[in-house]
Amino acid sequence: MYERIREIIDGVVEVNGPDPSAIRDRVWELFFEVQDENGRIELLSMYDAAMRLALGRLTAETPEFEGLRQVVEIDKCAFVILEAMIEDAIVDADEFDRIVDREIKANRMHGREFAMHAKSAAKVLRDQRETWNRRKGPAGDTLH
What we know:
Layout: H1 2-16, H2 20-33, H3 37-56, H4 63-83, E1 85-86, E2 90-91, H5 93-105, H6 113-135
Helix pairs in contact: 1-2, 1-3, 2-3, 3-4, 5-6
């Protein structure tokens, strides 16, 4: 799978130059196919490198640059949320927090607003889970 990720991303970058739309389409397609964390890490690393290259070719502080930068940050947020989801319905707060830490340590995310908000969101999710668990009765029923 990892070789396939490399080939697809390299093909998009080589054929079209750093075309952000094509890169995003490929990465989103592959994100749902990759089932293991190592594959996702490799995919996100390639996404980050390709988007940095695309951003590097734009003039900083222009509407195009800012627009792409925001799209990349939103994508990264969405990738973290999706990776932390359980059964496509619930975000596991602990897993969310761990993934954000992993992405910050790998320098794919920075101390920008999302990282700060993501850490806060994990705390809120954890607090909500604890509140919900306290409301559960002995048989697992919710107490009202």
